[in-house]
Description:
By secondary structure, the protein is of the alpha/beta class. It has helices at 42-49, 72-77, 95-107, 111-135, 151-163, 181-196, 208-214, 232-236, 239-245, and strands spanning 2-13, 16-27, 31-35, 57-62, 65-66, 80-83, 169-173, 200-204, 217-222, 225-230.
Amino acid sequence: MTLFRIENLRKSFGGLEVIRGVSLEVAQGQRLALIGPNGAGKTTVFNLINGYYRPDEGRILLDGQDLVPMAPRLRIRHGLARSFQNIRLIPHLTVEENVLLGAHIHAGGMLAQALPLFMGRGRKLREQARGLLEDAGLTAHRGALAGSLAYGLRKRVEVVRALMARPRLLLLDEPCAGLNTQERGVLMEELQRIAASGVTMMVVEHDMHFVGGLCDRAIVLNFGEKIAEGTPAEVARDPAVIEAYLGHEPEKYAHA
Ligand SMILES: Nc1ncnc2c1ncn2[C@@H]1O[C@H](COP(=O)(O)OP(=O)(O)OP(=O)(O)O)[C@@H](O)[C@H]1O
C-alpha cells in the first residue's frame, strides 16, 4: 500500500528551477533513500515535504491527503516527523525533557498552548518518553543534560524525540553526518528497529554503505530531476548515476 506520494513537484528560487517535476512513491513500511550529488535538490524536497517551502506545482500526499495546503505543524499532526541534519536539542535541558518536547508539537503547536495538556497528560507523556528511551537503549542517559552528551548519542536522542510525535513517515536528513563508523553502526541498528515497528522512512544520506544497510529503495536526483530508481545496489551501478557523481568522489558511492 502506498503511504506517501509526490506528484510532479516543482520549485524555483529566483528564476532557477531547482526541483523539476519530481514524482515518487513510498509504500507503507518502506525505507526510501533520496540520494544525489551536492546541490541536486534533496534538502529542498524535504523542505517542501515538511512545509518550509511551498511548491510552485505538484502534490504531496500522505495517506491520500494533500499536505501542500497544510501548515507545518498540521503536517506533523498528520503523521510527519523530521530529524534535522543540524542537531537542535536544547543543551541545558535533560535528555528526557528534550524527548518530551517532541510531544508538544503533536499536542498542537506552540509550547504555551500545549502546557495545560502537558499538565493533564504529563504522566502519560513521561511514560511514553521513558519507554522510547528504554527501547533505544538510552535509559542510562535520561537525566543527563543534552549538551553534555557525545555527538553520536545526541543524534540518537534526536531520533527518539521525533518518535514522540508518533510519526507515520519519518524524514531523516543526513543521519550519519559527523558520526564515526561505530556510531553509524549503532544508529543503523536503532533505525532498523524503528523501521521494524512500522515507521516508514525517507532518508537523505551520502554514506552509501549506510543507505545499503537501511534502505530497500533509492531514488537519485540530479539537477532537480529523478535520474534513477531501484535498490541501493542497482542505482549505485547505474551509468547515469555514476556519470552524475563524476567529480563528486565516485569511488565513495561504488560499494553499495
Ligand atoms: N532558499 C534558497 N534560495 C535559493 N536557492 C536555493 C535555496 N535553497 C536551495 N537552493 C538551491 O537549490 C539547489 C538545490 O539545493 P539543495 O540544498 O536542495 O541540494 P542538496 O541535494 O540537498 O545538496 P547537499 O547534498 O549539498 O545538501 C542548489 O542549487 C541550491 O543552491
